[in-house]
Amino acid sequence: MKPEVRGTLLILAAGFLWGISATLAKLLLAGTVDTLLLVQTRVTFSALLMGAGYALFSRARLRAKPRDLWRFLLLGVLGIAGANVTYYHVIKESSVATAILLQYTAPFLVLGWAALTREERVTRPKVLAALLSLAGCFLSVGGVSGDAGAIPGGALAVGLLSALCFAFLNVFPRSIAGRAGVGTMTFYALLFASLFWLMVNPPAAVIERNVPSSTWLLLAGFAVISVLLPHTLYFTGLRHVAASRAIVTSTFEPVVAIVSAALMAGELLAPPQVFGAVLVLSAIVFLQRSREPAGA
């Protein structure tokens, strides 16, 4: 299997898990779980599970070079923690649809960064695929019916910040993964994100919430599905796929989100949503069929 095909499949798998996670998060947030506890526990449980696994079976992955620590810190705090809290804040204040739509304006930020730094070539197929995927996202999340248009001002600002964090999460890891390894990079990024949330929401404050043990089990499972597995898959895929191609491919997430919302939350799929899903899938296929220019 070609490296680019392998990378694309890994990113699609990550998008699938993120799409399911969006619906699960909405169900959890509708109960006794608040946004802060959700985003904190999903990275903390992931870091603990990954660290324990490496300590038992692959201790070499726990060794990090001191000069890479600040990079892991930025990736964990600005990338993972930043994208998580802004995304789920918009879900709580508005809807899953709005959160996905705003976050997936990120492909244009990545394309702009690529053009500015010349890290990769911005080709016509990439721009067309980004436009096609954004239109598909708009339709998928109910843009025609107006559901995606009634966005509170605060949620809109946070959603755009979410797109910026997600774009950073696509661009920055490429400079680290090849040198430090995907496993090491992912673990320390999650560790720094966890430490950040411990400062924002100390253990004493978490204990005061008196969360039932059954909820803790749900949060641990949610951490594996929404962070541990998809981030590992996505960062591994980024080693084989250009950032602009990766982030357009990741728009597979809203397709999974609307389907999972229909199956798990009883939300009906309107014809525009189905057509939007087709557009997103068409953008992904179109992008994969286009060739990267020589030397890119």
List keywords for this structure.
296 residues; mainly alpha; 14 helices; 77% helix
Notes on the structure:
The chain is mostly helical. The protein has one domain (3-289). It has 14 helices and no strands. The chain has helices at 3-29, 35-57, 69-93, 96-103, 106-117, 124-140, 153-171, 174-180, 182-200, 203-208, 213-238, 243-249, 252-264, 271-289. Helix 2 (35-57) crosses helix 9 (182-200), helix 2 packs across helix 11 (213-238) and helix 13 packs antiparallel against helix 14 (271-289). The model has no long low-confidence stretch (mean pLDDT 84).
Briefly summarize what is shown.
With 296 residues, the protein is mostly helical.
